[in-house]
Amino acid sequence: MAISSSVVFIFTTLLFLSGYVLQQQTVRSLQAAIRPQPAVVQPPPSPVLAKHFGTPPGHSLFDKYLASNRPKGGWAKVAYVQLLREHLHVCNAVMLFAVLEEQESLAQRVILYPKEWDEKKEAKGKGKLDSDPQVETSKRLLRQAAKRYKVMLQPIQPMVKIGDESVFPLAGLLSLSGYNRVIYLPPSGLILDTSGMDHLFTLPMESTMLGISAGSEDEAHTPSIVLMRPSKESLKETLASLPTDKYTEEGFLSKISLLSDLPEDQIHVLAKTSGLRDEDDAFDADKFMDGTSYVHISDPEILGPEFDVSRQMLASVRPKKHEPKKAWQDIYEKYRQQRMDVCGLDLEPAPKLFKDVARAPEQETLS
Predict the structure, then answer these.
(1) Three-state secondary structure readout of 279-320
(2) The model scores a pTM over 0.90
(3) Model confidence over 200-210: pLDDT tens digits?
């Protein structure tokens, strides 16, 4: 009887222990199943590779241009170049490059500016730096262009005299022989779509310089976009063809061949605000804003979009028909807003002389 009881006790104990072990294994399995798994940390992409071509591979513009419209020598050999002479136009140059950066243009960006802006002169007898507010603003904007919008800044020395002023001539852009092609945009203007502008780097050019114009017929001889193929030889030939006693920008621009008929896919690359007055009732303002690459803001009666002009003056200058007028006003307002957003600058007050001249058409309209 004692032996039977011992056998029962031993088997009961073994059964209990085996059940306990199985229970613990089940509990651990359930805990492992419901416990959240640690996230697998992926190594960050190499910033060097991501920026090697200026735009990460797989970007739509990158694929489009490198696949079918790659300019001669690649995107490192073409550039948008802005030549600055006045502080008034610094902001517009920075605005253009801000849009190029935002829309990821692959072309290089260069600003040429007077070297004297970098020179600091001490005020006589004061031992303090003579600070010019315009110079300081221009230098701030140039630093912003270099830091934010990947612009190469190049100080330049004057080469020729225009009137009483020594300047770096527009013809001097031909000296930028490190590039196969450059595009210069006379102030002032707005880039609405960089894809159409970038395509100009692949446009066939038979001559050293090519101009594209827009606007009214009496302004057709003035290019709103200038394309150049820089080289030492072309610079030498161009300067030799100009009057030796007096260089003028007008004489230089007259040497530029104007492109009258753009390829079908480039018809809407350029527009000019003065040309909107000639548009008829079939004009569509929304299609114009969506389909135009660059707008040259130029109206003979207005000094420029940088100035705060009276409403009466604007009313006398803008197109009369509804849709062209809407597009015209949208361009001027977009310029004003972009000037504030990019440069932190409001419109400049119109010079007194301009105000006096501007009153004449207003009085004629009212009479």
Answers:
(1) CCCCCCHHHHHHHCCEEECCCCCCCCCCEECCHHHHHHHCCC
(2) no
(3) 999 888 889 99
